[in-house]
Each structure stands twice: as structure tokens, then as C-alpha cells.
Write a structure and sequence with these properties.
By secondary structure, this protein is α+β, with helices and mostly antiparallel strands. It has helices at about 15-20, 25-50, 55-95, 105-125, 135-145, 145-160, 185-200, 230-245; strands at about 125-135, 170-175, 175-185, 205-210, 210-215, 215-225, 255.
């Protein structure tokens, strides 16, 4: 009459998702109800085929046993599964995140960008990549300290994220560079968003150690076209556009023209 909770229609592979969505207590209650239902069904069938009648006492026992045992066993196991799932989720998030800025890291960006390149190539679609670089990061580091430089990186990351869509991918590319992935967006469409970011950062000043610090950035953007053989071609074009912006004095967005 006592049933193993793992045999009651709860798929082990789905259990962590159920626990995240409904919580340990609700899942435990659901498992207990399923255990009672299974216990009553099995007990009634056995009594009917062996004795020709269904005993009320037998049914009562078939309810009480899983009502007592199922919560004790399933709550502890569900709690353990939930804790392990949360720990794994934190590790996944940390492995994909830049520790300083809280943005995605370079590895995660390339995973998503390769997937987007393959999708665009297969289905004749398009996307854009943009690279952002500080114009005055060395001056901030040398003139105010590396902690001021860290603060500047965080401010830029916050400004960028606030202007992006949920589908966009934004990551720290390395040092004082950030990189954007814009799915289903050509370079000119991406430039509209990047111009807003440039304007917001250009109007930004932040205080550090009682001193006001301005941030200057340049951005280069390029989009995918069907003749590209690999992801690095669009990255090179975005890089060319970035250096074109630098050569023109910085503090601007340049879209690569093919």
C-alpha cells in the first residue's frame, strides 16, 4: 500500500523544474495525494478480487499509511533535489557571467553567436554584432585609479543593458571592450539602438572620490551576409568599423559598409 514517490508519475528529469515552479511544499502535497490515490486503488482491487468485497477498514488503512509515510520521504528528497538544482543553476550562471560587470562573459557570447550564425546561414536570416571600446579607459585608470576604471565599466554595462531587448546578448569581450549580438537585426537597425547607448553614456558623469568622471566610447557594428563562411568574418568587420570610429576621433558609432 505504501508507494515509492518516484513511481507515481513524477518524471525525475522534470522534478527540478516542478520544484522551481511550484515549490517543495506543493510538490510534496501533490506526491502525497498521488500516493494515496495509488494506494487506495491497489488496495480496493486486491480486496475485491481476494475477498469479493471492499473493506472500509482496508481503505482507511490504505489512506493513512501513505498520508503518514509519503510526506516524510518525499519532502526530504524533494528538498534535497531542489537545493542541488539551485546550486547547479548558480554554477551555470557563474560560469556564464563576468564577475565584475554582471554581464555575460566571452565564452557564453561565442556559444550564442555561433548558434546564431548557423541559424542565419541555414534559414537565410540575418543578425548583427557590435563591439564597444572605451576611448579614455587608460586615462580613467591612470588618472583616478583602477577602482574608478571598474566603476566606469559597471556604468557602461548598466547603460547598455537598459537599452537592449531580452533577445539580445551583451557580454564583456575583454578589458574595456564589450560585445553585442542582435538577432534578426541588420547593422543600420542595430545602429539606432547603439546611437541611443552612445548618447546616454556621453551624457553620463559619475562621482568617484569626490571627482566627476566622464566616459567616452566608440562602437563598430556589422551584420551577417550570406557569403560569410564563419563567425570571425562578421567579427572582423565589426572590428574594422570600430577602428574606423576611432580614426574619426571616437565617440561615435560606425556601421560597416560592404
Amino acid at each position: 500500500m505504501n508507494q515509492n514517490p518516484n513511481t507515481l508519475g513524477v518524471d525525475k528529469s522534470r522534478l527540478p523544474a516542478l520544484l522551481r515552479r511550484y515549490g517543495v511544499l506543493r510538490v510534496t502535497v501533490a506526491v502525497t495525494l498521488l500516493a494515496i490515490l495509488a494506494s487506495v486503488t491497489v488496495t480496493a482491487a486486491i480486496l475485491y478480487f481476494t475477498e469479493g468485497t471492499i473493506s472500509p477498514i482496508g481503505i482507511l488503512i490504505s489512506i493513512i499509511v501513505p498520508l503518514v509515510l509519503a510526506p516524510l520521504s518525499s519532502y526530504n528528497s524533494n528538498q534535497l533535489v531542489h537545493r542541488l538544482d539551485m546550486a547547479e543553476e548558480r554554477l551555470r550562471r557563474l560560469s556564464n557571467t563576468d564577475e565584475l560587470t554582471g554581464t555575460f562573459n566571452r565564452r557564453y557570447f561565442f556559444e550564442q553567436a555561433v548558434r546564431e550564425f548557423e541559424r542565419a546561414k541555414r534559414y537565410d536570416q540575418y543578425f548583427s554584432i557590435a563591439i564597444l571600446d572605451f576611448d579614455n579607459f587608460k586615462n580613467i585608470n591612470d588618472g583616478y585609479s583602477h577602482l574608478a576604471g571598474d566603476a566606469a565599466l559597471k556604468r557602461v554595462a548598466e547603460a547598455c543593458i537598459s537599452n537592449l531587448r531580452q533577445m539580445d546578448v551583451f557580454a564583456r569581450y575583454g578589458g574595456d571592450e564589450f560585445i553585442f549580438l542582435f538577432p534578426d537585426t541588420d547593422a543600420l537597425q542595430a545602429k539606432e539602438c547603439l546611437d541611443r547607448i552612445l548618447a546616454q553614456i556621453g551624457a553620463m558623469e559619475f562621482q568617484y572620490a569626490g571627482r566627476s568622471i566622464s566616459i567616452y566610447i566608440s562602437i563598430g557594428v556589422a551584420d551577417f551576409h550570406e557569403t560569410m563562411l564563419d563567425l570571425y568574418e562578421i567579427l572582423r568587420e565589426a572590428d574594422f568599423a570600430l577602428y574606423a570610429a576611432k580614426r574619426q576621433g571616437g565617440v561615435r558609432v560606425i556601421a560597416h559598409s560592404t
